[in-house]
Structures are given as structure tokens and as C-alpha cells.
Amino acid sequence: MKILVGVKRVADPNVKVRVRSDRTAVDLANIKMTINPFDEIAVEAAIRLKEQGAATEVVVVSCGTAASQDALRTALAMGADRAILVQTEAELQPLAVAKLLKAIVDKESPDVVLLGKQAIDDDSNQTGQLLAALLDRPQATFASAIERTGSGLLVRRETDDGRETVEMSLPAVITADLRLNEPRYVTLPNLMKAKKKPLDTLDASTLGADIAPRFKIVSLDEPPARQAGERVPDVAALVARLRAESTPA
Q1: Assigned domain for 65 exists
Q2: Which of 24, 40, 177, 229 is the most buried (most CB within 10 A)?
Q3: First-last CA distance in the chain
Q4: Which family does it belong to (predicted)?
């Protein structure tokens, strides 16, 4: 079983980002970047399937600028076999990424495509579903457990109503949820070894995909500053204050 994993380079979730002065995007200048946490979980899931003998090869792919090689090298250091960078300077929205990934899937013919359920920069939660539709393949979103069963997969997924277990035939598309696993720590020796693993670069324009933006961000604003708390002398005062605030004017 061959697994293709999509990864995205995003701002580190532990750093504070600011909105640009023109209010059209986040200012990423001098910001630490990292692999999208949900994509990191997807990479870990693919590697574990390979370690269990359920997969034979793990290929990671990223769409974006040349700087996205950092995210791919991290995935290779975790244990992926090889990487593909679909390089472009264009703004990539979920549909565009799905179309580029479809072109890579057509070339690589993986049995499973694993993606993070969403990227933490735009929280779109669309790429996996769009890719499954373009490929006309079964999908399981928000996966919290993946198990190989004969010729297919057993996937437990998180829903608003609880947990759902689905049995899938291959090929398929799966998106990883937070509870799927805890990604392994990437050591410096593994990062050095990752530099020797294959990383191919493809120009997005050669894949024949229409990646033109479908929408435009009109404005972007930071959330309002949190108001300072207020100290009360005792529980009775707290209850009285809460009651007063909850009573309609």
C-alpha cells in the first residue's frame, strides 16, 4: 500500500502573529514557520502504518514556494521515504491545492491520500473533501484511528454526534484529526539524514491545473483585546455579580 501525505508550511502555532497594515493578510515577515500540526499527525499516521507492515512507501507532497521544502524535510526526518514540492508563487486556495494534489495523485497512483483535517492558518477544512470529490474516491474525514483490514481500511472518525467507524475500500482519501496520534520528536541526526532523501520539485504550471483564486479577502482584523478581570471579595459577591450581569436590562 502506497500512501501520499499532503503537508503545508504555516506559522508556528506558538508565536503571535500580526495583521498587515493593509489588513489583507497576516504579516509573516520574520515569523517562525513549521509544518501544519494536523499534517504532521497525518505524516505520523502514514509512518506508523508502514512500520506495522501495512504500507510499503510514504510520499509527502507540498504546494507552495521554495520555502516549503522545510516542511517536507521535517516530514522526511520523521520517516517519509521521499518528497515532492509543487512549486508556485501564486496564492493557493483550497480548491487550487486540491487540483494540484489530484495531478500528483494521477502521477503517483497512491492507495491512500492522507491529509490534515485543516490548516491552522485559514482553518478552511476543505482540501481533503474537495480532493476526494475530484478523484471520485471514498473519504473519511476527522479520523481518530486507522487500521488496515484485508484489502481495505477501518477508520474511526470524530463527529458532532460522537464516534463513527467506517470500513473503506481502496483507493481512498482520509483527513487526520487531533486524536489520531502524537507525532514523534524529530531529532537532529534524522534531520541530517533527511537531506539525503529524494525531494523532487515540479513547477505547478506544468500540471495543467487551474489554480486561479475563487475568492478575495476584503479585510482582516485582529480579535478585540481581552478585558482585564475583576477581583471580588468572596463567593457571595461573585454570585451576586453574575446574577446582575445575566439579568436582562
Answers
A1: yes
A2: 40
A3: 64
A4: Belongs to the ETF beta-subunit/FixA family.
**pLDDT digit string, tens, across residues 118-141:** 998 888 999 999 999 999 999 999
pTM: 0.85
- With beta carbons less than 8 A apart as the criterion, state whether 112 and 1 touch: yes
List, for residues 70-103, the tens digit of each pLDDT value: 999 999 999 999 999 999 998 899 999 999 999 9
Does residue 221 belong to any structural domain of this protein? Answer: no
What is the rounded CA–CA span in Å between residue 71 and residue 183? 14
CATH number at residue 38: 3.40.50.620
202 within a domain of the structure (yes/no): yes
The three three-digit cell numbers of residue 130, written as one number: 474537495
Neighbours of 224 (CB within 10 A): 6
